[in-house]
Write a structure and sequence with these properties.
The chain has helices spanning about 15-25, 50-60, 65-70, 105-120, 170-175, 245-250, 255-260, 310-330, 340-360, 365-380, 425-430, 450-460, 485-490, 510-525; strands at about 5-10, 30-35, 50, 70, 75-80, 85-90, 100-105, 125, 130-135, 140-150, 155-165, 180-195, 210-215, 220-225, 235-240, 270-285, 290, 290-295, 300, 415-420, 420-425, 435-440, 460-465, 475, 495, 505. It is about 30% helix and about 30% strand. The protein is built from 14 helices and 26 strands.
Length: about 550
């Protein structure tokens, strides 16, 4: 194999690329990042991460950054023109990951902290003002031609894999000629971020803390904009462009002040930025071609009404990182990467469709249609939002008919646990590799020798979850009550969990566990997976 400049080249340097570079560095790989702009983009875009992404960041050693840049989300409420509540999404409740379901984030603060961490990592080479102009897959490596945007000088760099994390207008996707499927949502919204004067909060201003005002005269989003690293509180308004308005009109400062004037006074803070965005619903039809891979907005776009755009990109990288790590180490065939798109594309498509459903509630400028919507929701006839999707394909336990068997595909539980005299997050004690979680109904000592040998050969860590702390270093107390109730609800006493937290499968007894381990062993063999794939070190 040709010696390359990097193991991985990443095009683009948004939040997904930053986390990706840090993940691959943590796994020991050399990463080259190429960004055509000369500095970090300073303005907010995303305002949310969910419990799964918060968990991912903690498991990847980025927990301090997550804590510094986020704040708990309030209840997400949807109102009609008369401020009658149509829909409530409780983002404050306990999640399967432990802690609230959603956190608000100040994206510039998050990216600044991630960037500082990137600069501390010796394995990451960051190249600003350098754009990708071409690339070629040479079979065992990728050659990438990059150009200095100031001098126009070009050079060629090489890597074993290229990841295009370069946004909605991805150069990598366009050069591959990859098409996108349009799921049918398009709406223009003016996004406005406002920094409140010190000491002011939404209640002081008579604002709903987090909501959508489904007023056909001006559909409006009113949500937190996060808290920056100096403790300053930001608010976000988003105003839908009406059919009678032009895009040019919407971005005029006079128009912005007019729209904001109904909500806040100029002396109550400072306007940070405003921009008109076209919210769309697009999914790339290919996510990998040979050694070139797409992730983040390069692979998918969605309306913002679930706060899942950045989360979806980070899920891409979390799914990809443990698989590409094994391929790079030679402990899995490249065919393992064939599971990336089948696992991620249907999942993100469901998330996009759920975001579109929420968008269809608010994006109604017609009064008659809005009145009909109001009647449907206020009468209780409206269907509830669909549950958040699980994995339905890929590396998951299957029955004799080949169908995925529950609880396979669920996001596994997580929470505060106790090991000996220490209390902390489960992911601080257990690395994010393949893990077998048992309750005391199936003692590890009862496992057949063949099952134990297979688990050892696959590098699966075995832990026991109990109500109280045991004497063993592999017996953990379920302090928060996240694991055992979930297992009881699922009717299982064993869970096999993948490195990305998704459940491979569950078993109710020793015989079922033996079959489950055989299934994992067989599927791992299909992908040439052998012991030696690195687990992300415990946080």
């Amino acid at each position: 194999m040709k010696e390359t400049d990097f193991d991985i080249i990443q095009i683009g340097y948004g939040p997904v690329s930053k986390v990706s570079a840090l993940l691959f560095d943590r796994l020991g790989w050399r990463v080259g990042v190429f960004e055509r702009f000369g500095e970090l983009y300073p303005l907010p875009r995303a305002v949310c991460i969910d419990h799964e992404i918060n968990r991912m960041m903690h498991a990847a050693g980025l927990g301090e950054i997550a804590r510094a840049a986020t704040s708990p989300a309030p209840v997400y409420r949807w109102f009609n023109k008369e401020w009658k509540e149509l829909l409530t999404l409780d983002w404050t409740g306990e999640s399967v990951s432990g802690g609230p379901g959603t956190l608000f984030v100040h994206q510039p603060s998050l990216e600044s902290l991630l960037h500082d961490e990137v600069r501390r990592r010796a394995n990451i080479e960051l190249n600003f003002e350098t754009e990708c102009v071409d690339f070629a897959d040479r079979g065992d490596h990728v050659e990438v031609t990059v150009r200095d945007t100031q001098t126009k000088a070009t050079r060629t760099v090489t890597a074993r894999y290229l990841i295009g994390i370069d946004g909605a207008n991805s150069t990598v996707r366009q050069k591959l000629g990859i098409t996108r499927t349009d799921l049918g949502f398009e709406a223009d919204w003016l996004v406005v971020d406002f920094l409140l004067k010190e000491g002011l909060g939404p209640r002081d201003l008579g604002l709903v803390e987090c909501g959508q005002w489904c007023n056909p005269e001006r559909p409006t989003t009113i949500v937190p904009g996060g808290v920056d690293l100096n403790g300053r509180v930001l608010r976000r308004w988003e105003f839908m462009r009406l059919p009678s308005e032009t895009k040019e009109e919407m971005v005029q400062e006079a128009k912005v002040k007019e729209l904001l004037g109904d909500w806040i006074k100029p002396e109550q803070g400072d306007l940070i930025r405003h921009a008109l965005y076209t919210f769309r619903s697009l999914v790339a039809d290919e996510w990998r071609r040979g050694r070139v891979i797409l992730a983040g907005d390069a692979a998918h776009l969605m309306p913002p009404f679930m706060g899942q755009g950045m989360c979806a990109g980070l899920r891409d990288i979390w799914n990809l990182s443990w698989k590409l790590d094994r391929v790079l180490r030679g402990t899995a065939d490249e065919s393992l990467l064939d599971t990336y798109m089948p696992e991620r594309r249907p999942h993100v498509t469901e998330v996009i469709e759920q975001s579109m459903f929420l968008g269809s509630i608010i994006c109604i400028p017609d009064p008659a249609a809005a009145a009909e919507r109001d009647q449907t929701f206020l009468s209780g006839e409206a269907p509830p939002p669909a549950p958040f999707p699980i994995l339905n394909d890929g590396l998951l336990a299957r029955g004799p008919d080949g169908a995925v068997q529950a609880p396979a595909g669920d996001l596994s539980p997580h929470g505060t646990v106790r090991l000996r005299r220490r209390t902390g997050r489960y992911d601080a004690f257990v690395p994010a590799g393949f893990t077998l979680i048992l309750d005391r109904t199936i003692p590890e000592s009862d496992l057949p020798a063949a099952t134990c040998a297979a688990l050892a050969a696959m590098g699966v860590k075995v832990v026991t979850i109990a109500h109280r702390v045991g004497a063993s270093d592999t017996e953990i107390a379920d302090s928060q009550g996240q694991f055992l109730p979930y297992m009881q609800t699922q009717g299982v006493h064993a869970l096999l969990v993948r490195p990305d937290f998704f459940v491979f499968g569950g078993a109710a007894d020793v015989g079922g566990l033996a079959r489950l381990v055989e299934d994992l062993s067989r599927q791992m063999a299909d992908f040439g997976m052998v012991e030696g794939g690195a687990a992300v070190p415990a946080a």
